[in-house]
Amino acid sequence: MTDKFWKWFCDNNEHLTMLDDLDENVANTLLEDMQKALDDYCEGLTYEIGDQTPNGRTVTFSAEGDTDLFKYVTDLVEAAPDLDWWEFVAFKQPKGKGLKVTFDKYRFDTKKMYFMELENEESPDMVGLRVALENPVEDDDDQLVGVYVTIEALIGEFDCATLIGYLDVCPIPAEPLKEGFKKMDDLPEFIEWFKNR
Length: 197
Prior knowledge:
three-stranded mixed sheet; 38% helix; four-stranded mixed sheet; 2 domains; 7 helices; alpha/beta
């Protein structure tokens, strides 16, 4: 199943390597063709090509958080050819701390956010999170999705999809740390603790 995609990639390897030097229309067509080749392998997967570095480029394949498609991502990356200048990565990776994420009309700054663990007796292997925001909007799905996207950027796609079982938002209390909240930038350490507890 993966062979056809990797054959397409190898056939177009030279052009993909020189992506920045291509005419914009040629580059866009090439990237669209790559998405079509990926769709032929498994619909629902996406990819992101990183910027050129002295060591080459990274291609990150994602299931956009759909755990039913995770196997297709891992199979694809495991079958990747060994090509100079390319690194192939399964799932969106954590982007570090102090993030500013834009989603729809919302802007999320992890330095101004807090979280609290919510225990779930029915699913002890999953984490519930209450996220405290400045001026949250009640019952706004876009805002909730934006918070999820921010969490995914902090802890990575795999952990976000497999460990976060529940999410809600609330206003930031007057003294969040005294009321049991932790700083949002501490979430990666908390998730590592949760996985190893």
